[in-house]
């Protein structure tokens, strides 16, 4: 009887793994802490940029979802993403750039239940955040800074470089680097870069989450992220290879 039970458990475990069919994310990438419906994310060895495999996100959202025009809001719940976090120590007081090459397919279409009632919203810069890069900087004094790429990708896009330039404040504890896909669609990302830049290079737009409507998404998880500090590396892993795992 025990033997039969073991066989059944092994079979079911194999079935679940095979059914998901989802290649694992390379370390140290993890799913983001957005309030998201189910989505697929992993390493794609077939979709390459300059010979490098890519991280993919694939999402379908059949339910109603409230959206904000061109930006995240506290009620925005159709966001998929992956992230990695590092200690801010090495970059405190520096201006840095987080960049990557993104390729999208049908990115940004959403369901909306706006003032006119439930309707299907086509992807556009005015109705969807689309796809792009984001960064969250947590400080021990309770401040949380959020940045998102100003030029986001909507619909179909070949490989496009996106970047965020931001300051890491002297009191910063950790930096979270991420990729996001809002609404339906497919996203591939690789060719990442993270480096210090000249103070003369202008910063891109950012939001101070302490006093904005994004509060529910990120600021509420501030303490949880700070607890990760002791386990975090000093610098990000920028290569996208299965060997990272």
Describe the structure using short key phrases.
245 residues, mainly beta, Jelly Rolls, 5-stranded antiparallel β-sheet, 2 helices, 10% helix
> Helical content, roughly?
under 10%
**Strand order within the widest sheet?**
1-4-11-8-9-13
Q: Can you identify the CATH superfamily?
A: Galactose-binding domain-like
Profile the largest sheet: 6 strands, antiparallel
Ends distance:
37 Å
DSSP helix count? 2
**Sheet/helix structural class:** mainly beta
Instruction: Give, in order, the helices and strands.
Output: HEEEEEEEEEEEEEH
Q: Quote the CATH topology.
A: Jelly Rolls
Low-confidence regions: 1-20, 62-77, 111-123, 208-217
Which CATH class is shown? Mainly Beta
Total number of domains: 1
Question: What does the secondary structure layout of this molecule look like, with pairings?
Answer:
Layout (H helix, E strand, L loop, with lengths): L1 H19 L9 E2 L8 E10 L2 E8 L19 E9 L7 E13 L2 E5 L2 E5 L9 E9 L4 E5 L6 E13 L4 E11 L2 E12 L9 E3 L13 H5 L19
Antiparallel strand pairs: 1-4, 2-3, 3-12, 4-11, 5-10, 5-12, 6-7, 8-9, 8-11, 9-13
Question: What would you say this structure looks like, in words?
Answer:
This protein has 245 residues and is mainly beta. The protein has one domain: Jelly Rolls (Sandwich), CATH 2.60.120. It is 10% helix and 43% strand. It is built from two helices and 13 strands; from the N terminus they run H-E-E-E-E-E-E-E-E-E-E-E-E-E-H. It has a six-stranded antiparallel β-sheet with strand order 1-4-11-8-9-13. A five-stranded antiparallel β-sheet has the order 2-3-12-5-10, with no helix packed on it. It has a two-stranded antiparallel sheet with strand order 6-7. Strand 2 (40-49) and strand 3 form a beta hairpin. The longest helix is centred in the N-terminal third of the chain and has 19 residues, at 2-20. The two termini are 37 Å apart.
């Amino acid at each position: 009887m025990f033997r039969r039970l073991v066989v059944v458990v092994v079979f079911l475990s194999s079935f679940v793994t095979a059914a998901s069919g989802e290649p694992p994310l390379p370390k140290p990438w993890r799913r983001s802490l957005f309030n998201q419906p189910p989505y697929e994310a992993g390493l794609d060895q077939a979709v390459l940029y300059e010979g490098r495999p890519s991280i993919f996100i694939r999402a379908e959202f059949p339910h109603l979802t409230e959206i904000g025009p061109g930006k995240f809001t506290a009620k925005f719940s159709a966001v998929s993403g992956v992230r990695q976090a590092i200690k801010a120590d090495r970059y405190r007081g520096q201006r840095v750039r987080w960049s990557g090459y993104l390729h999208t397919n049908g990115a940004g279409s959403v369901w909306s239940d706006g003032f006119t009632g439930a309707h299907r919203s086509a992807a556009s810069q005015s109705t969807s955040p689309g796809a792009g890069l984001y960064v969250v900087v947590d400080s021990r004094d309770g401040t949380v800074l959020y940045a998102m790429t100003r030029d986001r990708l909507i619909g179909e896009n070949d490989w496009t470089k996106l970047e965020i330039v931001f300051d890491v404040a002297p009191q910063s504890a950790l930096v979270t680097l991420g990729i996001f896909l809002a609404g339906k669609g497919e996203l591939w990302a690789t060719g990442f870069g993270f480096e210090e830049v000249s103070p003369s290079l202008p910063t891109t737009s950012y939001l101070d989450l302490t006093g904005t409507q994004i509060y529910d998404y990120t600021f509420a998880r501030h303490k949880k992220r700070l607890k990760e500090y002791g386990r975090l590396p000093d610098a990000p892993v920028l290569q996208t290879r299965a060997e990272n795992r």
